[in-house]
């Protein structure tokens, strides 16, 4: 649906290293292959949300839209191996590099405690869309996200 917004380009590429989602692979890919810059709205789900936040620590972007974002490795070996959680979050740098931060989270997410999702929203002062029935947002339709992005682009509904 977002690929059909006139005057805008939507890139949706498969990320390399999809199981471990290593920061050392994903962040360079975002810069060199996806060309994320100050005109980019990065939409990240789960590990992609974490990558978007880490990317915004050191790069200026137009906006980040975080879906199922969290703050720790959750005791998971793959999450620990990803490298994203090896140092403290630089919340102020993210906010300074990214003027628009929107977050979608659901209290019934089977993988992420609501406490961590809420912490992201609080620390980033994100516009939070809180749901109680979306789980980990693995459904194929997500009209609210499309509406939010269109409003950022100032495209009629």
Automatic annotation (TrEMBL):
Gene designation per UniProt: RBBP9
Protein name according to UniProt: Serine hydrolase RBBP9 isoform X4
The keyword Hydrolase is annotated on this UniProt entry: yes
One MF term in the entry's GO annotations: hydrolase activity
Keyword Acyltransferase tagged: no
Annotated organism of origin: Tursiops truncatus
TM stretches of this protein: none
Keyword entries, A-Z: Hydrolase
InterPro entries according to UniProt: AB_hydrolase_fold, RBBP9/YdeN
């Amino acid at each position: 649906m977002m690929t059909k917004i006139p005057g805008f380009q939507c890139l949706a590429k498969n990320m390399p290293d999809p199981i471990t989602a290593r920061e050392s692979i994903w962040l360079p890919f975002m810069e060199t292959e996806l060309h994320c810059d100050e005109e980019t709205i990065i939409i990240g789900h789960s590990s992609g949300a974490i990558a978007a936040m880490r990317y915004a620590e050191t790069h200026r972007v137009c906006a980040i839209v975080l879906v199922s974002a969290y703050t720790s490795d959750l005791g998971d070996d793959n999450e620990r191996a990803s490298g994203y959680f090896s140092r403290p979050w630089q919340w102020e740098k993210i906010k300074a590099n990214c003027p628009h931060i929107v977050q979608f989270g659901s209290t019934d997410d089977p993988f992420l405690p609501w406490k961590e999702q809420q912490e992201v929203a609080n620390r980033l002062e994100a516009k939070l869309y809180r749901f109680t029935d979306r789980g980990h947002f693995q459904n194929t339709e997500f009209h609210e996200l499309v509406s939010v992005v269109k409003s950022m682009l100032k495209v009629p509904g």
